[in-house]
Amino acid sequence: xxxxxxxxxxxxxxxxxxxxxxxxxxxxxxxxxxxxxxxxxxxxxxxxxxxxxxxxxxxxxxxxxxxxxxxxxxxxxxxxxxxxxxxxxxxxxxxxxxxxxxxxxxxxxxxxxxxxxxxxxxxxxxxxxxxxxxxxxxxxxxxxxxxxxxxxxxxxxxxxxxxxxxxxxxxxxxxxxxxxxxxxxxxxxxxxxxxxxxxxxxxxxxxxxxxxxxxx
Length: 216
Hints:
alpha+beta; Peptide Methionine Sulfoxide Reductase, Chain A; 5 helices; 17% strand; globular
């Protein structure tokens, strides 16, 4: 039905929703770890930002990973300041749903997290993830340093080779950009599947393994 069709084009600064100057309220405490959700990471803890479809299932994958200190879900890669979930879902903010992963690099490397990212969804689908269609479901890595960018791009190249070797002709469409601004999602989205164990997950993958860099 035409009225159900999603717009898969990102908005411009002129067409994006205006947003607001005040942040949307979110949770104070991580539902799984019991740690403050809005405190700065402790010394030695690094941060990675991934978008891999609906952030409910994506966040659970990362909070279950050894070496991860904290996870938070939100919106990044867009234009509208302090968007709501409904605004992001409209496709008129330019954001995608993301998971911020705070991790101890002594226990888990950024490369290992990128490997998990690539293997936990299908990064070749453009503005969708499975049956979830829209710009807010696009695959993305928002890097925090030149080292993260280099690792992400190298691993995407190697993953495309692994896809081709497995008979997949598609190219990875993941957005790889520096993190601009991240807006935290509303309280009920944080650790959603811990609060709602039978809730919608939406995570799938290609079944193809991504090789880790030899230096990882």
